[in-house]
């Protein structure tokens, strides 16, 4: 492991894998421990395309943030943001407008510690250590209040994070509460693991079982449930599709790979 000893919080459990660090490892990052790498290998054993899943999700997030920025969005609330490494949301948004503001919300202490280091000195971008289900805590947090203007549109991002909210009603209510808090013209960006695909559903379910041994268990949901979250919103073309199919940069991506191997359904929707 890289020598991160100077910033690792003393209270974290390094004996239990964490989704944020496993995901970082799958994307080629180094902010992870042996236990996370072992978990990543166990995930690959259960779903051989799990690295592609992570890569497709991250690329979807990149395209979705660009899409929102092109639509005029300058504020982003990234819920379950993970490590702000590689190209993170603020870097992507700031390619369109360097004044774009981002609040990252993450519950994993290592990701928060890492975020604090990376973002130190970056104006208009902060990370909050919080559980995104605590909607009032996130919305009333002094950092949120300082950075985000709720009288202007905001993109609410839940990329590969809502499936860690196990209670289905709580998940729906969490989305509703954030979308109620933002003005018309705001956006909702979602990717969520699904076992609806005929191809790959067994592997998805094996991965979900494995997640129960980490600090956050996940749950796969049906296409219908995911589409139901978007009721009342204007879903942008091409609708609810696998991450790799959402406005891909090149057609090549589609012909080369089985779309279902993204294993996460994705959508971008506007609050009318
Ligand atoms: C697979 S990563 C996705 C990271 C990033 N959003 C992306 O799509 O590239 C999921 C992240 O959600 C975080 N997470 C899960 N449940 C959460 C919760 N209730 N509140 C805040 N973060 C959460 C995990 O710690 C993890 O970092």
How would you summarize this macromolecular structure in one to three sentences?
This protein is of the alpha/beta class and 272 residues long. It has helices at residues 19-26, 34-46, 50-70, 89-96, 109-119, 135-140, 142-147, 168-181, 201-211, 223-228, 252-256, and strands at 75-79, 101-106, 125-129, 155-159, 187-193, 234-235, 241-242, 264-270.
Strand content: 5-15%
Number of strands: 8
The CATH superfamily label reads Vaccinia Virus protein VP39
Number of helices: 11
Distance between the termini: 47 Å
Ligands bound to this protein structure: S-adenosylmethionine
Provide the residue-averaged pLDDT. Answer: 90
Helix and strand arrangement:
Blueprint: H1 19-26, H2 34-46, H3 50-70, E1 75-79, H4 89-96, E2 101-106, H5 109-119, E3 125-129, H6 135-140, H7 142-147, E4 155-159, H8 168-181, E5 187-193, H9 201-211, H10 223-228, E6 234-235, E7 241-242, H11 252-256, E8 264-270
Parallel strand pairs: 1-2, 1-4, 2-3, 4-5
Antiparallel strand pairs: 5-8, 6-8, 7-8
Helix pairs in contact: 1-2, 2-9, 3-4
The chain binds S-adenosylmethionine.
What does this structure look like?
Helices cover 40% and strands 14% of the residues. By secondary structure, it is of the alpha/beta class. The protein has one domain (19-270): Rossmann fold. Strands 1, 2, 3, 4, 5, 6, 7 and 8 form an 8-stranded mixed sheet that branches. Helix 8 links the parallel strand 4 and strand 5. Helix 1 (19-26) packs across helix 2, helix 2 (34-46) runs antiparallel to helix 9 (201-211) and helix 3 (50-70) runs parallel beside helix 4 (89-96). The chain is globular. The protein starts with 18 loop residues before the first helix and ends with a strand. S-adenosylmethionine is lined by residues 19-20, 23, 57-58, 61, 80-82, 105-108, 111, 131-133, 159-161, 164, 216.
């Amino acid at each position: 492991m890289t020598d991160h000893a100077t910033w690792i919080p003393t209270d974290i459990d390094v004996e239990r894998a964490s989704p944020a660090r496993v995901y970082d490892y799958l994307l080629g990052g180094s902010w992870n421990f042996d236990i996370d790498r072992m978990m990543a290998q166990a995930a690959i054993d259960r779903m051989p395309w799990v690295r592609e899943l992570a890569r497709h999700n991250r690329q979807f997030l990149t395209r979705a943030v660009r899409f929102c920025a092109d639509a005029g969005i300058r504020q982003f609330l990234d819920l379950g943001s993970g490590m702000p490494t590689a190209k993170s949301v603020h870097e992507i948004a700031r390619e369109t407008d360097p004044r774009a503001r981002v609040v990252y919300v993450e519950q994993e202490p290592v990701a928060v510690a890492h975020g604090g280091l990376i973002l130190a000195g970056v104006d208009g971008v902060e990370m909050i250590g919080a559980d995104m289900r605590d909607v009032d805590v996130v919305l009333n947090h002094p950092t949120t209040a300082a950075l985000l203007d709720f009288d202007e549109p905001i993109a609410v991002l839940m990329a590969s994070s809502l499936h860690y909210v196990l209670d289905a009603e709580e998940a729906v209510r969490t989305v509703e509460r954030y979308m109620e808090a933002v003005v018309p013209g705001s956006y909702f960006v979602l990717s969520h693991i699904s076992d609806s695909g005929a191809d790959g559903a067994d592997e998805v379910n094996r991965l979900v079982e494995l997640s129960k041994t980490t600090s956050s268990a996940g749950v796969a949901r049906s296409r219908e449930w995911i589409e139901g979250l978007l009721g009342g919103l204007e879903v942008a073309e091409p609708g609810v599709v696998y991450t790799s199919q959402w406005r891909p940069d090149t057609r090549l991506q589609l012909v080369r790979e089985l779309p279902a191997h993204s294993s996460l359904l994705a959508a971008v929707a506007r609050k009318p």
